């Protein structure tokens, strides 16, 4: 099973649920690239790694304030569940469903 694809995601943030589309593009070996695009704009995935069906990556948020995000997610079938660590705001839940 591949983790590649686009996922309709919701992140439970202090500002309320934020919707976005997370795109995963596997690269060489155990790496991946992609981005998440939503109401607050788009963020590129940095340092994406794949271990089995578990993904880890970082993103740099610019809106509504600059912040580094550390993310992890597990893909099971067409479902994605994970966590986004957002500095002083703590850890937020991330859920998603593969498109198509």
UniProtKB/TrEMBL annotation:
This is Uncharacterized protein. It comes from Novosphingobium album. The lineage of its organism: Bacteria, Pseudomonadati, Pseudomonadota, Alphaproteobacteria, Sphingomonadales.
């Amino acid at each position: 099973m591949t983790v590649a694809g686009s996922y309709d995601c919701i992140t439970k943030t202090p500002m309320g649920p934020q919707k976005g589309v997370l795109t995963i593009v596997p690269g060489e070996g155990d790496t991946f690239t992609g981005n998440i695009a939503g109401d607050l704009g788009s963020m590129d995935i940095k340092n994406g790694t794949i271990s089995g069906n578990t993904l880890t990556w970082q993103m740099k948020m610019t809106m509504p304030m600059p912040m580094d995000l550390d993310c992890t997610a597990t893909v099971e079938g067409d479902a994605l569940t994970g966590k986004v660590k957002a500095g002083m705001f703590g850890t937020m839940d991330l859920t998603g469903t593969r498109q198509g």
